[in-house]
Amino acid sequence: MSTSSILRLAPLGFPWQTLDPFLFCVHHHDAYPAGNAQLGPQASLAGRKLGQDFAGQDGWSMYHGDTVPGFPSHPHRGFETVTIARQGLIDHSDSLGATARFGGGDVQWLTAGQGIVHCEMFPLVHPHAPNPTELFQIWLNLPAKNKMAKPHFTMFWHEDIPRTVHVDAKDGHTEVVCIAGSLSGMQPLPPPPDSWASAPHSDLAIWTLTMSAGARWTLPAAQHPQTRRMLYFFKGPQLQVAGQAVNSHSAIELQADHAVELINGNAESECLVLQGRPIGEPVAQYGPFVMNTAAEIQQAFADYQRTEFGGWPWGASDPVHARDRGRFAQHADGTLEERSTESNPLAPTS
């Protein structure tokens, strides 16, 4: 297969390089130690720049947290966050009165729309064992007509997310997890109603791939020639993409309307695929606000200063749930989703 299927190849940056309609993608992977009584790290925090700790000292960061790692209350407007909690747990609280604990493969899809304040904390629930935490956070733009939509969050519990394993002629295995966008007969869970992913022509997809040593699999062509596609090769020593050897920690822009064969090297590899038709509208971004014009950004700041997007009902800016609380989501309308911890080995145990 011709390497013309590869349009651009670059080392992964921080954050990862993205294409319209995606705005931002980051991969956090932290080897947190055992947790203390406050569900923070059972370790000294000396030498860390608390409140802005992204250095990865000892293999983990506190981020904006000063007791529990994570991101205390902060506002958003005009876009969506898709948080894929691959390992560990995330405690969510927001200005609508909603709250949740999710992890171990669960996904939260949050439409910030006209404005929301939320926090994302990483509780270290195991007091006698390490608390590894791994997640992707992806920012997905909203079209202008939906930027002031009502805020809303959806939980995709890992038990419900479609996945399949492709076995090739040499018994290599490729597991595909389908978070958004149909693939190989898999239909994803429905995204939020105001999302660009809900537009029938968006061709939006979020897939993760795990390939065993030596596995071969062909990434099918996208549905529309205008679609843009990025393949992020973030784990494993080497991968052949459309016949070209690619080293780990690479961002690869692919010709989306080409089918592309992937041939893995001699150790397990993992990739993330983000694709979609561009929204194609002006983007004005300042920190946590993403609108179409500078005037709309100024209005976002004014609205937040006036209303705090509903206020913060939780007291502390970094609330976490009890150590023994299982996976759940309490929505703003009072709907409660409870999920068993039995199928999730990284959920808290009593």
Question: Brief description of this entry?
Answer:
The protein has 350 residues and is mostly beta strands. The protein has one helix and 24 strands.
Can you describe what's shown?
With 350 residues, the protein is mainly beta. It has two domains: 1-13 and 162-281, Sandwich (Jelly Rolls), CATH 2.60.120.10; 22-160 and 284-317, Jelly Rolls (Sandwich). 4% of the residues lie in helices and 41% in strands. It is built from one helix and 24 strands. It has one helix at 294-307, and strands at 6-11, 22-32, 70-76, 79-87, 89-94, 99-103, 106-111, 116-121, 131-141, 152-156, 163-167, 173-180, 205-211, 216-219, 228-235, 238-241, 244-247, 250-254, 260-264, 269-276, 284-286, 289-291, 327-330, 336-339. β11 and β12 form a beta hairpin.
List keywords for this structure.
1 helix; Pirin_C_dom; Pirin family protein; globular; mainly beta; disordered C terminus; 4% helix; single chain; metal ion binding; Jelly Rolls; 6-stranded antiparallel β-sheet; 350 residues; Pirin; iron
